[in-house]
Amino acid sequence: MDVKKYEVFVKIVEKSSLTKAAEAMGLTQSGVSHIVAAMESELGVALLRRSRTGAVLTPEGERLMPHIRAIVTQETQLRHAAEALRSQVAGKLRVGTFTSVATHWLPAMMMEFQRLHPSVEFTLFNGDYHDVVRWLEDGSVDLAFTAVPAPADCRCIPLYRDPLLAVLPRGHRLCRVPVCPAEELAKEPMIGLPDNSDHDIRRALAAVGSKPDICLRTKDDYAVIAMVRQGLGVSIMPSLLLHGNNDGVELRPLDPPASRTIELALPAGDIRPGAAAFAEFAAAWVRDNEKKAFSP
């Protein structure tokens, strides 16, 4: 339905003038006259009576005017409803994440966000770094927590610099020093994540020109800690992950220091209102909570 012509007609009646209606609608007077003629031809009745003093409704126009106004009103309501849907923070929000964020940040973060936006329903995709990148690239998630490097075509919001720590079995020779030399740690058999996700270990040892000797790999972060606890090897893990999960192991800062940067990544293109709102909220939440115990 061409609602524009009805909007023009309502404006003519409001202004009692084709000329003034044309000015208000950004049209030419001849264009407005053509619209009126087309409506009268379509409906088969005269709608306006024109004179030197302006334009007034005919009796037929008076009877049809409520229906014309109703069409314009419904169109306006439809536009407003569509705009509300486009900007509404509601519905399902798919979030990709890895273990440390899923354990230590997201429970409180989601609870506070849902208090502000109770119509949001979260679906979490939990995996390792490689999984998160894949979910972003194939559109499985609306946004994701990542660790540098993130996909190049995403818009990334840096959230937190998370120190990397040496994880040692109790009684290990390197437990005798307060700071663990990365060069010495590289001489030990290591337990790590799958090859496409062990960025943290490689980053820490690259600073001293060493490569890790990975003797065991697992996709489960907490399994790494359990294996170190049993003396199967050593590891390098993020501080946030080790918070409250360091029983039976010794932790030491590294020399030289190393860290990972946790980011929030949003796919390229149109961003859903809920995802944009949560990204903004998450960045503020991390800033507000950074002074709390994010470390072991």
Write a brief structural summary:
By secondary structure, the protein is α/β, with parallel strands linked by helices.
Report on the architecture of this protein.
With 296 residues, the protein is an alpha/beta fold. The protein has twelve helices and twelve strands. Strands 3, 4, 5, 6, 7, 10, 11 and 12 form an eight-stranded mixed beta sheet that branches. α1 packs across α2, α1 packs across α4 and α2 packs across α3. It starts with a helix and ends in a 7-residue tail after the last helix. The model has no long low-confidence stretch (mean pLDDT 88).
Write the SSE topology.
Blueprint: H1 4-15, H2 18-25, H3 29-43, E1 48-51, E2 54-57, H4 59-87, E3 91-98, H5 99-104, H6 106-116, E4 120-127, H7 129-138, E5 143-147, E6 155-169, E7 180-181, H8 182-185, E8 189-192, H9 199-206, E9 213-217, H10 221-229, E10 235-238, H11 239-242, E11 249-255, E12 259-266, H12 273-289
Helix pairs in contact: 1-2, 1-4, 2-3
Keywords:
296 residues, alpha/beta, eight-stranded mixed sheet, two-stranded antiparallel sheet, 12 helices, rod-shaped
Distance between the termini: 64 Å
The proportion of residues forming helix, as a percent range, comes to 40-55%
- General form: rod-shaped
Radius of gyration: 32 Å
